[in-house]
Amino acid sequence: xxxxxxxxxxxxxxxxxxxxxxxxxxxxxxxxxxxxxxxxxxxxxxxxxxxxxxxxxxxxxxxxxxxxxxxxxxxxxxxxxxxxxxxxxxxxxxxxxxxxxxxxxxxxxxxxxxxxxxxxxxxxxxxxxxxxxxxxxxxxxxxxxxxxxxxxxxxxxxxxxxxxxxxxxxxxxxxxxxxxxxxxxxxxxxxxxxxxxxxxxxxxxxxxxxxxxxxxxxxxxxxxxxxxxxxxxxxxxxxxxxxxxxxxxxxxxxxxxxxxxxxxxxxxxxxxxxxxxxxxxxxxxxxxxxxxxxxxxxxxxxxxxxxxxxxxxxxxxxxxxxxxxxxxxxxxxxxxxxxxxxxxxxxxxxxxxxxxxxxxxxxxxxxxxxxxxxxxxxxxxxxxxxxxxxxxxxxxxxxxxxxxxxxxxxxxxxxxxxxxxxxxxxxxxxxxxxxxxxxxxxxxxxxxxxxxxxxxxxxxxxxxxxxxxxxxxxxxxxxxxxxxxxxxxxxxxxxxxxxxxxxxxxxxxxxxxxxxxxxxxxxxxxxxxxxxxxxxxxxxxxxxxxxxxxxxxxxxxxxxxxxxxxxxxxxxxxxxxxxxxxxxxxxxxxxxxxxxxxxxxxxxxxxxxxxxxxxxxxxxxxxxxxxxxxxxxxxxxxxxxxxxxxxxxxxxxxxxxxxxxxxxxxxxxxxxxxxxxxxxxxxxxxxxxxxxxxxxxxxxxxxxxxxxxxxxxxxxxxxxxxxxxxxxxxxxxxxxxxxxxxxxxxxxxxxxxxxxxxxxxxxxxxxxxxxxxxxxxxxxxxxxxxxxxxxxxxxxxxxxxxxxxxxxxxxxxxxxxxxxxxxxxxxxxxxxxxxxxxxxxxxxxxxxxxxxxxxxxxxxxxxxxxxxxxxxxxxxxxxxxxxxxxxxxxxxxxxxxxxx
Length: 900
What we know:
single chain; 900 residues; mainly beta; Collagenase (Catalytic Domain); 21-stranded mixed β-sheet; 8-stranded mixed β-sheet; 9 helices; elongated
């Protein structure tokens, strides 16, 4: 028995032409007939080449060989007529000069292109009489040439396949038939017969499926592969896409060594050289012993010992096996195998998976078990069989280590004793006709299997492993009732089981009140721990982990995980840790990835590699971030939220909250209630209402307050900018001593810059804009806006670049309130002048020259902009204050009616 130690890449390299293949989802084939067309100059089909066609019977064998290849691959091989049009693959006879050449084939076109000769198979006319029977050399050669037409090469061609696999036991593309021959005797002597491959072998199947994909419909149901003596005279491989399948050896005349692992080769009907010699001597007693022995010692013809005659494709998983009436060795695979050794002193190995061994009393007697594991069962198939008792041997008094199981086949019948080997270390339970390998005081792992099972743990931390699940699981360790666990398994009962291993699907795994360890595996799992100090491991996928009560350790693994935390203090520390812990480094110090969320009903600080925190419930609890860009959301209580490093988002929710951003460009939202917000270092954004207090203790970066209503930036707060939300119904906004940018959107707002060189944008609505002290830049934007200037806030002595400026004044719509008139400006108090200059001093002098006869306000249209100068000390001819009207360089751009 052999499991090839080879990778898929080495198989592809050794057996595939890298750049020659058919493209598309269909490859056609046809069989030439009298109406076949050939391109001019096609030498094999020329009149002198003795071109001829396959007979109907031979054509049928060719079709069977094509269909065998077709059964392996997703690409379809479809027969078409051969005439004026023809298939990609064709076959016919021609004269081949080299008598050693059985035939040849043209490989597919380069890079999936198209051409005429690629795919054509030519067989030497010397083979025209062949029946192409399965298992014959001619049939193997036919399969070989079809392999070429699909893009398979010889393993000895560069790049070569490893020499240990250059044999027809692994690939029928090889020229080496393992150098093994069958030795047959008759009354007149002996002869040698070839051992050929009746199907493509495991490496052929792996290569062709790598090139064209696997056919997932082939033998996808329940199939029984019954092996006969005749079949073992040649080699073959099984490809089975799915279902529950059985290899049945019961018809064989000798014992076998069956290996059920994908890719493995088995020895069916194993017949050693020594046994063959003994059998020949017994069958022909009158024949010289030396003569018989010489037949097996021929250096040219190595004797075939019935080895490596059945391969199982790497893409195939066989679940069941039935042995012969002789001594078999059967080795299972990773599936939950069902193995019936049959009669004989068998050796049965389950390997991985929760396996079921069964047979009659006679068949199981003297059977040896290997790799027996907790949860696996042995069942007696006899009608009415009932196990009555089990006895373990005493090696000190009895020598051997064995288990005796006593079975009755009728209520009052005698006990029959069955001796089994390999079970001495297991604790066995029996019910009815079944013996179950159960739990011990040690930690046991039960591997889940198809069917309805009972998993009974002992005093240790026992585990049920459902990692082979095909679909989502629903398992509750807190339930002692039978439960349908899903995932392709059955209805199971779990007793005294502490731990679970999930599969690759979206599992729902629930613990008990014990200290559980639950691993979800791949998939988006929901894992709940219930009571106890649990360890929950999400694995890959977007998992939700809820430890329940107790101090739980939770590892989300890869994906965007959610952790539910409800414990920060217990009387019993869990391995030195008090309260729930959240880890996103399954391997310490290495980030598992994803953006993860902790939902905590207690105060909590995020650990490394965990990004987000949401506080739940109504209690006044705290939440703290880490060095990452965190999202921290409060609950309805009075929370303290700390972002620390990183560009954090803090949202207090309801309640009177305290938010501290720390380093980084943070976003702080107070929510309902009277909140205290401090962004700390760098430029932060605050979302507030009028009741909130905002400070920037870091005094670095440019900060922004976004208010749902009116808001005042406090002096000394360190906040530069202020704006309303776009939907605010009223947003009276007031700046502070800094250079503020104040922005409103809709509604009729009062915007006041206070001190500093401010920039104010009013948005839609009829707004009032007051720059306050400093050189302010004002935009009224949409609506009829009023620009308010209070005495002493717009002194004209500051010069051209230091004055306030209005950038979008609309005469006839907007107004300027100089706070020197009662109502509209009187005609006698207003004058307007055009003056060809843009210099502030010249324009100011022009305004003062016009301040005669009671004129208090003068609009001067300069060459670039307009200026409005006014006196706050009556008509003394002095322009005390001024505002620049950007772009209004004509007296038509301003009117006395614009003043109030």
